[in-house]
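Quick entry between incubations.
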Amino acid sequence: MRALLRSMAPPVLGLGFSLVAAALLLLLLGEKTTVLWEALYNSCLTDFGLGYTLFYMTPYLFTGLGVAVCFQCGLFNIGGEGQLYLGAIAIVAVASVLPNLSPWFGIPLGILVAAGAGGTWGGIAGWLKAKRGSHEVIVTILLNFIAFAIVNYLILYQFDNPNSQSPETLDVGPGYRIASLSSLFGALGLSLFDSTPANVSLFIAIATAFAAYFFLFHTSRGFALRCVGKSIRASEFAGISVQSQTLLALALGGAFSGLVGINEVMGSQHKVIEGFSPQYGFTGIAVALLARSHPLGVIVSAFLFGVLQNSARELEFLSDKVTKELAVVIQAILIGFVAAQAVWGKPFLRWLSREKKR
Amino acid sequence: MAPEAFSFASVSKRFGAVQANAAVSFSVQDKSIHGVVGENGAGKSTIMKLLYGLYTPDEGSITVRGKKVKFRSPQDALAEGIGMVHQHFMLVPTLAVWENVVLGSEPHAWASNRKKSLARLSEIQKEFGFHLDLEAKVETLPVGLQQQVEILKILYREAKILIFDEPTAVLTPQEVDTFIERLRGLQAQGKTIIFISHKLKEILKLTDRVTVMRQGKVVGSWETDSLTETSLAEAMIGRKMHSLPHRTPTPAAEPLLKAEKLSVTSAHRRVLSDLSFSLRAGEVVGVAGVDGNGQQEWIETLARVRSDYEGHLTWKGQDYRAWSTYDFKQRGLGVIPPDRLFEAVILDFTLSENVLLGHHFATEVTKGGRVFWPQLAKTTSDLIHRFDIRPNDPQARMGGLSGGNQQKLVVSRELSRNVQLLVAAHPTRGVDIGAIECIHSEILRLRDQGAAVILFSSELDEILALSDRILVLYNGKIQGECTRAEADETQIGLWMTGGSQ
Amino acid sequence: MIELLASSLRLSTPLLFAAMGGLLCERAGIATICLEGILILGAWGAAVVTFYTSDPLLGLFAGVLCGVAGMAVHALLTISTKADPIVSGVAVNMLAAGLTPLLTKALFQSPTNTPSLALSDRFAPVALPYLSSLPVVGILFVQPWLIFLGLALPFAVHRFLYHTGRGLRVLASGDNPEALSTAGVSPAVLRWKMLLVGGAIASLGGVYLSVAHASQFTRDMSAGRGFIALTAVIFGKWRPLPTFAACLFFGFFDALQIRLQGDTTGAIPIPVQFIQVIPYAVALVVLAGFIGKAVPPLSIGKSVHSLP
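Done. Structure below.
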């Protein structure tokens, strides 16, 4: 119980701190702080708002896992952004080659190619790190730029929608579409999340998180991966191949990030729009950090980030002074606060345990 | 009586639960060589770091040349003429010798320092008889010369009191001799020298007075002339020394491990050349030698951490590379790595997880790639009981254990399976006496059960206590070889310095 | 051709400032993936204050102030609270990317850009004596003075690092801070100073972007240049002069790409994305160690294992 409290303290405090900071920022911008609470209320506790929150939560869950699994191996995956675009475009590609599959084949195939494309991209970084000793941070950043160029090229020249003014691809066929939550609940006779983009990808994401948890903490290979994250030398003496764990972690991370494509392409838009991601990949770092790289923690932390993202969107409607970037600022403060816990964490925990003794 | 250089008066320092120094009082005469001896963890380094301003005392006072001082940083200590050569050199490998020396006290902040520094340093070199190439990069220098750079650093800062923390640990016996001459020279030039060591011979040879420390306290200070090696050792350990246990001879048999012309090249340098050796069942072979003569590469090769060797290495007639590292470990290879904290354990993991390390596919705790934690906790509990490891909790974090308990866990893990070949590297480094005895008896028990053991240690005493046969490694070659019966300390010492015969 | 060179020079300048600022920080031992954010902050501060005051020099000071503030956050997190520099860098980048549109909206009702500046309010081209009157290449020497400053900077940084006492301390701080600390110099204080100086230099790249290169601040106007500058530093093996060359290289490909984008007369149309990819691909090949190995300052990048 104490341990749980101890691990929960930094994120919870960080969240409180960043919300206060956001409220102060609102005051500074000449806006009432009540709009913030209203937006938070709307995005957590209204049917429509929650639907959007869950929709935003899904990609954060995937990219958060993509970063977390690499953190566990002591690696930084800053390449989520590129990996997720490649995952998305891969679905469009396979859908254009095999347009008429039934959903029984199309959906698993789509999931597979999205994970495969992201995984390959992560795997390249993993290979460069493992075999050539390149630093994964800068490599994944460079791979992002290359991925953007490839995806933009494919959107504009290979899969472009000639009837559209904006750069986007053609729609994928019905065999590649994942049911929305509203139609799912509709089939059960419930009216939930109507006209929101929330879809069944969310469940896939949650299942992925559980799978990642099981892998990392209950299997031999997951243990080996975590060993490398803690000590490369000790892993070598234990007969663990640092190279293959590095490759595995970055490939897995890439695959998780690539799965963002299923939420976007199969679940909601049914196509790839240039620049669809509001930096899901980069924000994934914050998601993983807040969850202390624990896959199950990522579920909670992704939900929080979904709330933030959606609240910021709501704020744009509620206020004429604030833009949705407020979410980014809150996230930044949150990361900073959690990252700085070396300073406030220990004294705080000491204080916490003193309270207990009394 | 000669004037006093400095003195401690009831100085105490505590780190968390550890009382590193308790009411330490002693004084050192000006222009003398003063030894401070004690076992690992006796508080020698801590008391000197208090003098050097790296730590501040919790209680008590320090007096330098009759003046009470309160140092907040090494800078304050240097201002009073106190300099320290650390056990781990504080050098920037990528910079030149002169740059390392002037760093922090450069003549010019915003202009080139090269000319002025080189001129000044040449003077100092001449005065104290150093012959360093001032423009060489430090990373290209051998350890002995790097130490001279450290000394040059404090001479440049005109220190009058020079503290040396275990200075000979990294030196070959030959280098030790010239080093001792150098210290005498410095004394003749009017410097006061503090010599921290646990090597009694050097202390007796070099110092004027000795202070012995044990468990953070001062046992006493004596004129060196009044001491013998035995009396000093007993003061240091606090009891009579054990004699070596008797042992049965190794049964004659075919060697299990055989190496012919084993060579390793690392960073374009041949660090091991043409080693030929063998290892039989029921035999402990000790490898003596000063650290840095190729031990690390030899250990890594035998531990299967590196496989880029040339020549032949076989285990029971099979090529050493026939199995993966992991498989070999399951087939009876046990390794106690040289660096406990970085190579043997993971401090952030629990004891259970550390027991799993290196055996994460072992069938008694895993099935189909899945780890069964409750089973593992039971296995860990068993080891904890057998080796009396504290705390008795498989879920405790490794980082919370003392060095001795950590090492006992490592030994228990490596010996828990049916070990036929044990590579033990510095198995008792930084470990308390109780744990040393436990680890030594486990190694000998393993030998008596018929395993082959190869022991690497920089402590000659440990080698002599455990080995049936001794190899001496010098400069990547086996310089000499002898059996337990033939073992002669002087001869081994000679081999360690590269001498023959 | 000469136009292409001139354009390369213009596009290299923000990279040069960012890279030199980043290089100083990294040599002192702190990784700086926050350069992107520093560029954005510098560009924003400069554009806003120049708009209100019509004085680009005041704008420059404001931009530098914003950039230094951003770097101060990075320093606070990485040095004073020992946060991981990559995590902290991500936070600073997000802070910059979030705050600037928010404040732009508050000031100018539109989150995407600040109002454009009159030509006379921007940094005007200056002609270097003698050089600008050379035939053909003379045009290269009629530029805003920030460009000339950018060109001189690598030489200044080189001189500082390798030929002064203070530079020696910076090198030691990056390679073995413990040695520096036992020599009586606090690495923490030195790193704070270097980060503030590095932040000031890097933010000049942002100032250049909004007040010399363009005439307003637009959202995300740095467009990844901070990351490219960081790549240039690694490309240049953390040494000022090779980094200088790397910046010119990246600037050239940026110019080439823009030129091809506008040019549709070529017989074989090359998709512009292919050109865009070239510098990144080359950088990747270099990082993979196929063309020599880059060894970072020894104390950098150790912190990944200290993650929660």
